[in-house]
UniProtKB/TrEMBL annotation:
It catalyses: Thiol-dependent hydrolysis of ester, thioester, amide, peptide and isopeptide bonds formed by the C-terminal Gly of ubiquitin (a 76-residue protein attached to proteins as an intracellular targeting signal). Signal peptide: none annotated. It comes from Trichogramma brassicae. CDD domains: OTU_OTU1, Ubl_OTU1. It holds the Pfam family zf-C2H2_OTU1_C. Hydrolase that can remove conjugated ubiquitin from proteins and may therefore play an important regulatory role at the level of protein turnover by preventing degradation. The keyword Transport does not apply. Its EC number is 3.4.19.12. InterPro entries: OTU1_Ubl, OTU_dom, Papain-like_cys_pep_sf, Ubiquitin-like_dom, Ubiquitin-like_domsf, Znf-C2H2_OTU1-like_C. Residues 4-81 form the Ubiquitin-like domain. Residues 110-234 form the OTU domain. One of its GO terms (cellular component) is nucleus. This is Ubiquitin thioesterase OTU. It comes from the Eukaryota.
């Protein structure tokens, strides 16, 4: 068998891995990924397919072929967030500022916090910037907030606006497999009384939700075409992070704009209209997320992999 060619996405950008074969084990894959990403194998999480799903790495003697990892795929590598790891807390004791009375003027740098690449990454990201922790259980409550807002205003949230009937939309967004986007961001911005700024790495621009409401504070997310992560400011000495900012703080907004341009120039995004997918169940080749969605509706197939 020939060597595998894998595209690897991680917090430091994108890599190409070419030194493995289908007969290599998950243990060997993790060792190689550790080298290229800097993420230790004991806290490493590997995701594959479209939408991304976690690979079960408990049996690391399984071959890549047995795990359905094939040449041309894109895999995502992230660091598990273990909030109960006391040793990690002791190594990096940091105060997370989300309350306005604790805002300071200390210089820092805007950074990305990687959250799980599941179908609720938007909600998890908003939870982090508002509450200061990665909590995947918050998605259910946020989905209910959206359902309540939409169902209570059928004139505003009509079929033309939603792309489906009000009732169908409410049923759809209630499902844990449904992705959030602009509609949900606008509703959550109003609910929490905060401007939400989204750094879009696919086009190098920022989108502001709630800008016209003149809220006192704002938060930042980054979007790569299929996944949202929260952004936070880390102080120069690393002991404080901040994820809620005054809307009058133009310096932070400037950093966000620079980050958008940097992410675009380094191609830290997925072009959802042009990227090529392979159905992992029937081997059908598809172009773009819309084609994948239609294929899933027609065939009930749910596992897709991006082709390099």
């Amino acid at each position: 068998m020939g060597p595998l060619v894998l595209r690897v996405k991680c917090k430091s950008g994108q890599k190409i891995l070419e030194s493995l074969s289908p007969d290599c084990t998950l243990n060997e894959l993790k060792a190689k990924l550790c080298q290229v990403t800097g993420i230790k194998t004991d806290v490493m999480q590997i995701l594959q397919g479209y939408p991304p799903k976690a690979v079960d790495t408990r049996n690391d003697k399984m071959t890549l072929q047995e795990c359905n990892i094939s040449s041309g795929e894109t895999i995502i590598v992230e660091e598990k967030q273990n909030l109960n790891n006391e040793e990690s807390v002791q190594e990096q004791p940091r105060k997370h500022i989300t309350e306005q009375e604790n805002f300071g003027d200390s210089p820092g740098i805007l950074m990305k916090m990687v959250v799980p690449a599941d179908d609720s990454c938007l909600f998890t990201s908003i939870g982090f910037v508002l509450n200061g922790k990665v909590d995947t259980t918050i998605a259910k409550d946020m989905r209910q907030i959206i359902v309540s807002a939409v169902s209570a205003n059928p004139e505003i949230y009509n079929e033309a606006y939603l792309g489906k009937t009000n009732k169908d939309y409410c049923e759809w967004i209630s499902k844990s497999t449904s992705w959030g986007g602009a509609i949900e961001l606008a509703i959550l911005s109003k609910k929490y009384g905060v401007e939400i700024v989204v750094v879009d790495s696919s086009n190098g621009i920022i989108n502001r939700f709630g800008e016209d409401c003149h809220y006192a504070t704002r938060v930042f997310l980054i979007f790569d075409g299929i996944h949202y992560d929260p952004l936070y400011m880390e102080s120069m000495n690393g002991d404080v992070i901040q994820s809620v900012f005054l809307t009058e703080d133009e310096a932070v907004l400037g950093q966000a704009m620079s980050l958008a341009q940097e992410a675009k120039s380094s191609h830290q995004y997925t072009d959802v209209k042009k990227f090529t997918l392979r159905c992992m169940e029937c081997d059908c080749r598809l172009t773009g997320s819309e084609a994948a969605h239609k294929h899933a509706l027609d065939t009930k197939h749910q596992s897709f992999g991006e082709i390099v």
